[in-house]
Amino acid sequence: MPVARAIFAAIQARHPTTFARVDPSIASPAVSVVAAEDLAALLEGRADLPPSLRIGDVVLRLAESAEALVGATSPPTRGSLSGQVAVISGAASGLGLGVARGLHAAGAAVACTDVDAAGLAGLAASFGDLARVSTHVVDVTREDSVIAGFDEVLARFGRVDCVACCAGIAPAFELADFPLERWRLSLDINLTGYFLYGREAARIMQAQGHGGTMVLLSSKSGLEPSKANTAYNATKAGEIHMARGWAAELGRHGIRVNCIAPGNVFQGSKIWNADYIAQVARKRGIAPDEVIPYYIGLTALNRDIKPEDIANAAVFLASDAARCITGQVLVVDSGQVWSR
Ligand SMILES: NC(=O)c1ccc[n+]([C@@H]2O[C@H](COP(=O)([O-])OP(=O)(O)OC[C@H]3O[C@@H](n4cnc5c(N)ncnc54)[C@H](O)[C@@H]3O)[C@@H](O)[C@H]2O)c1
Description:
The protein is built from twelve helices and eleven strands. By secondary structure, the chain is of the alpha/beta class.
């Protein structure tokens, strides 16, 4: 260590604001020197400070501020998804945003995708960790947009380990009044969107060769239909069946595919907007401000389901704790539907 100190002193003589820290994780340091004179001679011919330096068995990481050094050497997150890259659709709002936050808190790098560019703006900063968050404007109904979005994610993070499909809509109409255009849009977003994300994920994960996970946000309405919800019931049931088929098909590649079937989640959801609540109130014959308590009261636990409850299920399904679980539906509804 005395030699290291002498060499460090030589660096500081030339770069007075230099900070250093012993970092055994560096396999190939930028410069190896054995004596302070060697380094002094080396620095004479260099404008830049080497970022790392081996002196005998000691490897130093160098930086021009203590803050940069701490950032460069802070230990990786030890969450259950540490090192994974997750792509989330519908991540600008509601459950998609909640799932993105949950996966991030569990250690994953999260690529938040959504068609809502304004909703994505500023989102990365709100995670407080720009190194493990990216945002991408993607329309899940358009093949070119989905492929371009995954290309961006690969360019940014280099891999994809988990895909969470959350972009969805729920137009509520009595069957006799259901506009064809809203039916078709539901199929496009809720089914084609999930299909395109699943297909891209399968292509990338198969090429990577180390497995992966897909988590599809279906709904309790995919198990037990709700009234005046034709397109939602059909597409949410379709997602479950699509996931089961993918689980059977992709298991040999180590890719697990599962669904979450949430009950009603009000917090942060744009589906549960004022118009929708008014429609539901009319359907149920109650006042709009009675709608949320009404639905909570239908659950066995009488408990309001929050986005983080759905996120916890997504983290579990994406993690190794669920390594033997595929083709399943995890119902997170505080106890409302009993079919699976
Ligand atoms: N909130 C609930 O009560 C509830 C219950 C069960 C299931 N779900 C499911 O959870 C998912 C999210 O619902 P939410 O309540 O958070 O809704 P939300 O409207 O708050 O979020 C949906 C997101 O999808 C995005 N989106 C819509 N069309 C898109 C497109 N073409 N391309 C890309 N993104 C698009 C929206 O911009 C929005 O950010 C849906 O799949 C929904 O079916 C919600």
